[in-house]
Amino acid sequence: MQKIGIVTDEAADLPKDLIEKNQIVIVPVKMFWPEIENLPGENTFQKMREAEKLGIKTFGKTSQPSVKDFTDAFEKQLNNFEKVIAIILTSKLSGTFNSANQARNFLKPKNQERLFLIDSLNVSSGESLLILRALDLVKQGREITEIVKDLQELIPNIHVIGIIPDPKWVEAGGRMSPIVANWIRKAAKIGVRPLIRIKDGILGAGGIVIGAKDIPTAVFKKFEAETKKTKRQNKKIRIVITHADDLLTATKLKEMIEKSWPNSEVVFLNIINNVVGTLSGPDTILLAWCESN
């Protein structure tokens, strides 16, 4: 039996090869949107664009995994590993962590002691950075209590910014207040690029960028402004970029970062999962970073 295994949810946006290589179990998050199921498109974002063209006014609905979904995932990993860490998307935007916690209570007492739950207070690229750190520590042979302590300390030091071109999707899903959504709309009309930020597990305003010619430039300028001190100290940083069916923008942002900061590591680019994407809408871009040990 191997020492430590990992469970997470679909919202982490991990690449398939990384999941398979590290034997991570992914718990799916549910989406319900029958009006777009049969529309053309290779992913949800392409279907959303088609829905807009056709004048479809409905929005997708999401729900957290069931307790059974988590129980099955936990038991699978506990059969293969001595101990298990479950890193779950922010409890402040979803009931997913609550489902995971309830599932833990259904396990046998000895198995409960072998399972460690962590509320990532993040999602997508930010959540994935926490998982990458966990994988590093597991490979280093660290003890489970040491790993959990390290991850808890890392959580407030993960930074996530991004741009949601059209806030109507996230506003309709109840994850952004009308005040913030209207601020984004008004700013865009006067040539200002408003950013969003995930902080302390909550989605909110992330400041503005003036004079950026496009979305990757705007995100890069904000990133550059917020990492000046870290860059000056020549520290290494780890980065993950996720996108809503806009690989071109994600790639351009990656190239800008690597050109400006050779000491950075962009671990991967990946498409945002369907559930988070249903809330953010097409062409959303998220950039997450943290200092790398």
* Computed structural class: alpha/beta
Q: Percentage of helical residues? A: 40-55%
CATH topology of the largest domain: Hypothetical Protein Tm841, Chain: A,domain 3
Anisotropy-based shape = globular
Span between termini:
28 Å
Order of helices and strands: EHEEHEHEHHEHHEHHEEHHEHEHE
- Strands of the largest sheet, in order across it? 9-8-7-12-10-11
* The CATH architecture of the largest domain: 2-Layer Sandwich
Helical stretch count? 13
Question: Quick one: how many beta strands?
Answer: 12
What gyration radius follows from the Cα positions, in whole Å?
19 Å
Structural summary, described in words:
This protein has 293 residues and is an alpha/beta fold. The chain contains 13 helices and 12 strands. It has 2 domains: 2-29 and 64-156, Rossmann fold (3-Layer(aba) Sandwich), CATH 3.40.50; 158-291, Hypothetical Protein Tm841, Chain: A,domain 3 (2-Layer Sandwich). The chain has helices spanning 16-21, 44-53, 67-80, 96-105, 109-114, 125-139, 144-154, 168-172, 178-189, 215-226, 228-232, 247-260, 274-280; strands at 2-9, 25-27, 30-32, 61-63, 81-88, 115-119, 159-163, 192-199, 202-210, 237-243, 264-271, 285-291. The chain has a 6-stranded mixed β-sheet with strand order 9-8-7-12-10-11, with helices on both faces. A 4-stranded parallel β-sheet has the order 2-1-5-6, with helices on both faces. Strands 3-4 form a two-stranded antiparallel sheet. Helix 1 (16-21) links the parallel strand 1 and strand 2 (25-27). Helix 6 (125-139) runs antiparallel to helix 7 and helix 10 (215-226) packs parallel to helix 12 (247-260).
